[in-house]
Amino acid sequence: MGLADIHIHLLFGVDDGAKDEDEMHAMLDAAYQAGTRVLCCTPHFHPGYFGDNYDKVNAAFKRLSSYVQKTYPDMALYLGNELRYEPECVNWLRQGVCRTVNGTRYVLVDFSETAPEKVIGNGLHALLNAGYIPILAHVERYRSLHGRIPAIQAFWHDGVVLQADTQSLLRGFGLLVQRQCRKLLSLGLIDLFSSDAHNCSSRPPEMLTCFNYINKKYGADYAAALCCDNAIRLLRGEAVRKDFS
């Protein structure tokens, strides 16, 4: 079964992910070998941190697409951004300088890991009120949300899609993050896992180990939903869950 990864930083020279074309190809190779067949590139977007990288992203994506067509014709490739939230981000989205996920209403958004719960909540609701569907990147890593299950449940019920990193499940960000990740998984509060890969070593494009863990502990259907099916629905602009669209 092919896996789907909708949060990855492998486009070279545009953010803190792949540094050059060789590393980009190596990350793509590693993703393919680990079972990924659907991949959405999500370079960081924040003018203050990464400058105006719009054209650089398009150029790198074009080169990656050419490599995929020649090397892995059975891999589907898409484009979006990981938006670092700022109050003016709705304008960035409406102007088209920041990409939604594959042109849908879904927006992959992150916050500082030290952001207060109120800041995260206000930002998510600003996007919802503007007509977008936020995908909260690596929900398990925000310190202010550790142990705050009711707050996360409220985001979930409001229609926020909750994405977790595969490395969190495997203790790549420490024991506290792993505990939070596994708790949210057990409660059904994770909609999908993605690699959030930045390289091939410390933050690799690994999806298969995560799939195998969920499959063994919760069954094949749950593993397929979180590591493939929900991501594909999202890329098509379809509802990930039945309680919102």
UniProtKB/TrEMBL annotation:
Q: Which top EC class is given?
A: hydrolase
Query: Which Pfam families would you find in this protein's record?
Result: CpsB_CapC
Q: Which reaction does it catalyse?
A: O-phospho-L-tyrosyl-[protein] + H2O = L-tyrosyl-[protein] + phosphate
User: Is Glycosyltransferase given among the entry's keywords?
Assistant: no
Q: For this protein, what is any one GO molecular function term?
A: manganese ion binding
- Keywords per UniProt: Hydrolase, Protein phosphatase
Q: Which E.C. number(s) belong to this protein? A: 3.1.3.48
Output the InterPro entries linked to this UniProt entry.
Caps_polysacc_synth_CpsB/CapC, Pol/histidinol_Pase-like
Residue ranges spanning the membrane: these are none
- PANTHER family in the record: TYROSINE-PROTEIN PHOSPHATASE YWQE
According to its UniProt record, which protein family does this protein belong to? Belongs to the metallo-dependent hydrolases superfamily. CpsB/CapC family.
Official protein name in the record: protein-tyrosine-phosphatase
